[in-house]
Specification:
Chain A: Keywords: Hydrolase, Protease. Chain A: Belongs to the peptidase C1 family. The complex is a heterodimer. Chain A contains ten helices and 37 strands. Chain A is of the alpha+beta class. In chain A, the strands form nine sheets. In chain A, strands 1, 2, 6, 7, 8, 9 and 10 form a seven-stranded mixed β-sheet that branches. Chain A has a five-stranded antiparallel β-sheet with strand order 12-34-35-36-37, with no helix packed on it. In chain A, helix 4 packs across helix 5, helix 6 packs across helix 7 and helix 6 crosses helix 8. The longest helix of chain A has 18 residues. Chain A starts with 8 loop residues before the first helix and ends with a strand. By secondary structure, chain B is mainly β. In chain B, strands 1-7-6-3 form a four-stranded mixed β-sheet, with no helix packed on it. Chain B has a three-stranded antiparallel β-sheet with strand order 2-5-4, with no helix packed on it. Chain B has no helices and seven strands. Classes of the chains: A alpha+beta, B mainly beta.
Chain lengths: 640, 105
């Protein structure tokens, strides 16, 4: 005998009123429309860990250390998770003006915390049964953002297809995270996309459809790597994790009424089991008694794709929720966040070491690195090359995260060196270039998204005061190509080359009159370089420019340009331009002393701070950084 | 699109089993045209254990019961698997049932 059930949205609305429900039916459902009733089940033994089995964990052992994200450090201190020394450091920050509520707050919402967005956009798994892959990928994306202050959009298809799952195949986040951990991380969509059955494929064949997994061969250099994930069974610990670490995957039973969930807190009013589903829990609200979740059915469901489920409802607390920490970001995701001689790699315990190359005398180049944990000491690595005529440009590439160095030689050419990660050796990539590159200058050097692996793009100032573009297709025969000369009257140019989201190249150079000018390459119209806006005055060194996370409201939005350049009095001017807001170039601050030039700049995993390395007039390298309180003078690193 | 022709006597039932893709946001909806008093459609229990043990995201069986009503009536029932917030999307799956209710004699 079929069970009785509401038939229409109007009947469901009446039922919600009758049962005193705290949620409402989606507004897109008219009263006369039928309420959706799909079906699926979720039972113990489907490779999900019951919460009771996961039990409690030692949070202090897992996350009892300062985070690169200073907000999280303060939250961990508030929970008593830090050592006395670390807690004192966090407390000192609190005394400086940041209030630290003791214990757990009544609500957490990772959509916006401390004035920053932390979650990638709501996605749509349609039409495949891949909610589990979306939950896992959402977890990796959000933790990359929270731990390293970078948007790192991931591909659900990488794990879904890597597991050889068909479109209709179910799964669970634990299996997905196991695969990600064991297979070198989770790649970006351009390496291997999430794909769905081709249009026109009959419905009865769609569930059996499977994409043949063939990621680009530089996958090892474009994955966010993970270590062990954590299964949390205790609800109170799940909330503490949400407060002090980040989001959690969660699975639950879906009942017939769930598909009508709009605003409010969902609790079950139907007895008809409709399926099993996985989402990303991105917060909680004790006052409302609910979890906040990010679904993967597009923005049309619930409220912009986000919904709320009451604690304990529909088995959401029956299964362990999975958390992640210790994400290790790929150089591709960070490619716009650094310029010049320094970048942040995934090396080190906290996967946030700074890597730097600097001229070391006698034409040699010295590799330096800074550990990502206190006391943040700089150390020397190996040295290489023998013909460097200026400071090198340094970056990480998608070649298995190799380090790549490029410098102007004493003979006015360019020479490429790379550190082959797989064998731990520096190799000479050969010389190329104009023959009249400006001695002592630093080239702009990036990996673009033309091709896979992406081309290397280089711009260097030449002795005639012009700029010369060179590029290499990163495939056989590996030859460098002369992209031609452009501009004139260029006095200084260096590490200030960025590829925009519309794929064209932007750079800023200092002119002989002391002003700066943006140049951009018009890719759709013959790859012609065109002059842009002129700004500033009195600049006597090469500008150094990155695209930062400021202004990047989501993973698709361009962040601000941040530019630093030294002037004649030895001080550094910081300039910025709002790429998304349309704000023109504005000078932010002037800082430093005895600076000859800015050799490198990055935005890393330290609370959106800007980090700058300068070459001083005494030929010493020094670190400066900017946090919410302004620019600070850091340590002297060493000679260059 | 599959089309089924069904002949039922008054009061007789027919159970239609369809793949439910609820974990992807899909629901089956139906629309009766022709003689609207030819049949009633109810969501049925798919059977003991239906959906139990399935992994999150998997399709599970859904059952719908048609009960014939007025003798001599004819109706066409269109089942469509859709996502309600996205009415502009084509249905994932569709099935047509042409139902004829026999005269009582």
């Amino acid at each position: 005998m079929p069970g009785e059930s509401v038939q229409t949205a109007g009947e469901l609305r009446a039922q919600l009123v009758a049962r005193g429900a705290r949620w409402s039916v989606s507004e897109h459902l008219a009263d006369g429309e039928r309420v959706p009733r799909p079906s699926l089940g979720l039972e113990p033994g489907v490779n999900l860990t019951p919460a009771a089995e996961a039990g409690t964990v030692d949070l202090r052992a897992l996350v009892g250390h300062p985070s690169g994200n200073p907000h999280l450090t303060r939250r961990r201190a508030a929970h008593g998770l830090l050592t006395d020394v670390d807690a004192a450091a966090a407390g000192a920050e609190a005394e400086a003006g940041v209030a630290v509520p003791a214990g757990r707050p009544v609500a957490v919402d990772w959509r916006s915390r401390w004035g920053w967005p932390w979650l990638t956009k709501v996605k749509d798994q349609n039409p495949c049964g891949s909610c589990w892959a979306f939950g896992a990928a959402g977890l990796v994306e959000s933790m990359a953002r929270i731990e390293h202050d970078v948007w790192a959009r991931r591909s659900e298809g990488d794990v879904h297809d890597g597991l050889k799952c068909t479109c209709g195949q179910g799964g669970n986040p634990e299996t997905a995270l196991d695969w990600i951990r064991a297979n070198g991380g989770l790649a970006d969509p351009d390496c291997w996309p999430y794909s769905t059955p081709p249009a026109g494929l009959p419905a009865e064949r769609r569930d059996a459809w499977r994409a043949e997994y063939t990621p680009s061969w530089d996958r090892s250099g474009r994955t966010v790597r993970i270590t062990d994930y954590v299964r949390l069974g205790d609800v109170e610990q799940q909330k503490a994790w949400l407060d002090t670490v980040g989001p959690l995957t969660a699975c639950f039973d879906v009942y017939d009424d769930f598909f009508g969930l709009g605003a409010g807190v969902y609790h079950r009013t139907s007895d008809r089991l409709a399926g099993g589903h996985c989402v990303l829990v991105v917060g909680y609200d004790d006052a409302a008694g609910c979890w906040l979740f990010k679904n993967s059915w597009g923005t049309g469901y619930h409220v912009g794709g986000y919904g709320r489920i009451a604690y304990g409802e529909v088995n959401i607390d029956y299964w362990a929720k999975c958390g992640l920490r210790g994400t290790n970001i790929d150089p591709w995701s960070k490619r716009r966040l650094h310029a010049g001689s320094v970048y942040e790699s995934g090396n080190g315990r906290a996967h946030r070491n700074f890597e730097m190359a600097a001229a070391a005398g006698g034409g040699r180049i010295q590799h330096w690195w800074r550990e990502g944990d206190a006391p943040f000491a700089w150390s020397r690595g190996a040295s290489f090359a023998g013909d460097a005529g200026g400071q090198p440009a340094f970056t990480g590439s998608t070649y298995n995260r190799n380090m790549e160095s490029l410098h102007v030689t004493t003979g006015g050419r360019l020479r490429h060196w790379y550190y082959e990660q797989s064998v731990g050796v520096w190799r000479d990539g050969g010389a190329f270039g104009p023959g009249d590159a400006a001695l002592g200058s630093t080239p702009g050097f990036i990996q673009s998204d033309y091709g896979k692996p992406g081309n290397f793009e280089v711009v260097v100032r030449t002795a005639d005061g012009r700029l010369n573009h060179w590029w290499r297709i990163n495939g056989a025969p590996w030859t460098w190509n002369d992209g031609g000369r452009f501009a004139s009257g260029i006095a200084h140019y260096g590490p200030a080359l960025v590829q925009t989201r519309s794929r064209h190249l932007d750079l800023v150079a200092a002119r002989t009159d002391g002003t700066m000018q943006l140049w951009w390459r018009d890719d759709p119209n013959g790859f012609v370089w065109r002059p842009g806006e002129v700004f500033g005055a009195g600049i006597t060194s090469a500008p150094c420019m990155v695209e930062s996370q400021y202004g990047a409201a989501d993973e698709d939005t361009a962040g601000n340009y941040e530019l630093c350049a030294a002037r004649a009095d030895g001080r550094v001017e910081h300039w910025w331009r709002g790429n998304a807001s349309g704000t023109g170039w504005a000078r932010g601050a002037v800082f430093g002393h005895d600076v000859l030039g800015v050799t490198g700049m990055l935005q890393g995993s330290f609370g959106f701070n800007l980090e700058v390395v300068v070459l001083r007039t005494d030929r010493l390298l020094q670190h400066y950084w900017r946090d919410g309180a302004g620019w600070h003078e850091g340590p002297v690193i060493g000679p260059a | 699109m599959e089309v089924r022709r069904i002949e039922l006597g008054p009061g007789e039932t027919y159970t239609l089993r369809l793949p439910g893709r609820g974990a992807r946001g899909y629901v089956w909806t139906w629309q009766v045209t022709g003689d609207e008093d030819a049949v009633t459609v109810r969501v049925a229990d798919a059977g003991p254990g239906a959906g139990r043990g399935a992994l999150p995201g998997e399709a599970v069986e859904r059952a719908y019961t048609l009960r014939a009503r007025r003798p001599g009536a004819r109706a066409r029932i269109r089942f469509a698997q859709i996502r309600p917030p996205y009415p502009q999307e084509a249905p994932y799956d569709e099935i047509l049932l042409d139902v004829e209710v026999r005269d009582e004699a």
